[in-house]
Amino acid sequence: MTTFQRIVLASRPQAEVHPENFRLETQEIPAITDGQVLIRNHYLSLDPYMRWRMNETKSYAAPQALDETMIGGGAGQVIESKNPKFAVGDFVTGTLGWTEIAVSDGTMLRKVDTTHIPLSAFVGVVGMPGMTAWFGVNQIMAPKAGETVLVSAASGAVGGVVGQLAKLRGCRVVGIAGGAEKCAYVVEQLGFDACIDYKAGNLQADLAAATPNGIDAIFENVGGQVFDTALPMTNAFARVALCGWIAGYNGEETPIRNAVFLLSNRITLRGFVVVENMEFWPQGLSELGLLVASGKLIFRETIADGLAAAPQAFIGLLKGKNFGKQLVKLI
Amino acid sequence: MTTFQRIVLASRPQAEVHPENFRLETQEIPAITDGQVLIRNHYLSLDPYMRWRMNETKSYAAPQALDETMIGGGAGQVIESKNPKFAVGDFVTGTLGWTEIAVSDGTMLRKVDTTHIPLSAFVGVVGMPGMTAWFGVNQIMAPKAGETVLVSAASGAVGGVVGQLAKLRGCRVVGIAGGAEKCAYVVEQLGFDACIDYKAGNLQADLAAATPNGIDAIFENVGGQVFDTALPMTNAFARVALCGWIAGYNGEETPIRNAVFLLSNRITLRGFVVVENMEFWPQGLSELGLLVASGKLIFRETIADGLAAAPQAFIGLLKGKNFGKQLVKLI
Prior knowledge:
The structure is a homodimer. The first copy, chain A, is of the alpha/beta class. Chain A has two domains: 152 residues, Medium-chain alcohol dehydrogenases, catalytic domain (Quinone Oxidoreductase, Chain A, domain 1, Alpha-Beta Complex), CATH 3.90.180.10; 148 residues, Rossmann fold. In chain A, strands 3, 4, 5, 6, 7, 14 and 15 form a seven-stranded mixed β-sheet that branches. In chain A, strands 10-9-8-11-12-13 form a six-stranded parallel β-sheet, sandwiched between helices. The longest helix of chain A has 14 residues. Strand 13 of chain A pairs antiparallel with strand 13 of chain B.
């Protein structure tokens, strides 16, 4: 093997993402220099934040550059090393990109132990999505036993963990998901107390019925109408962990019409990006890893096969077609 | 004197407040019982929160009851006491109501020293409005020297203190007010670096020009379009002290259209009501009192004459016709 494939950003989407925004390329495997490692990527993680990076507008990170490897987390194995911290055969996770082969200087590359936890989980429940959930629950929402927690995108890689962590704290947990099948999974498998199918057309009535004691904390992945409907149902001193705003990623208008409730219910809302809070990762990953290894935290994956399938899988993710963590299996 | 006048809520406003929503009544001065004091009210404080209490809807406090004395802060003098903590002649502030004479059991009644601070200031800059500013600046915005702070309703009882406290911290302070006269006062008297007249019709361009380094903290009294215009100009990790939403007090639609910036700029927003944070009052009032007594914190008052003038003065306050703290002088 002397070549590998990667996917670059060919053009920026105008609104919705299309397959033509990506381009599959074949490259020579490079020679590594001192301090570098060469990694065979096994699992590419697809996540909603990538949509934002495809835009050219100012955001929390630089836009994805055109004609460069698409940004993305991955989990793989070291196949060559000139870095004393990593040996051939080590399993690692990091920002490897949409590529079969990645070169790393070791920065932000994490060695993982797959004895009790499968490799793919390290880009999911014991990786960035899991840490996103952990940070929102522990550092922003901090829900007490008996409080009601609302989680949008509840069957997703982040939402599913949020709900399970809140259940472990003794909360009443209500999810929002798209479709009866996802809602059934959220309640029956993940153990949420209720799940509302926002596609059923009764969002307001269903949400009110599922939160008889009001809402004390919201983990928001979607924004737009779902969030707006929930705001008037919040209790005094509710907390909002604002993690995603998928409803507006394609440039749609997504106003908060019920903004006055932010004041009248004395809400604390915090937008966050978990990679800006790395100081919490050792503690969080340790806790998440123990929960997964002991079977107290479960997760589901949707796995696309081969790098060429990544664009369609990503487009499906943005439309909610995945079920749990969306991965691309590369080997 | 055996009788006094008071103003009760006669009816709830449908949208805008009208004089007919109030009724002036004459009552007998009651006999006080053990533990009570009788207070001659000198200054009635008029504040925007009262508009909210006039509605019947759920809010942070119970609605103002019909046919009962309108709620309101006041500063006056004890004229009879059966409470060992208060003597005849003591100056006091508390929630006395829209009335010439008030009975108190001493709860939340505060004795004040008028040696270096005028009595009226204790319902303004060294009272609830001043504490509102102090709490937002110190406990929510916590701006550092060199940061840019935006203050709406900048010439008002709260906004004027916010800006001066932020200037004392070494910030660049930009106010928003209605009209050239108020803006001139905000810059020339209160010492803000700039003030934008939102009535001039160039809000977006003027605000962008006045905040060349972006906005690090917002003290929001108004909401609606002003807040919405500022959101995209915030820097990463901006803080919003959400204190008022006057734009929506009459039931107007006041959506936040730029909500996605709460996430993309990782904003922390907190709605608050200062009377729910009484543990900070001793420290805050002490600091504010020293600043006023030493001339480092200035304030302006608009004083209506006599209780019967209160309804029109209040209606004017909601329309921004006051200039600085709105009071009604009763004696």
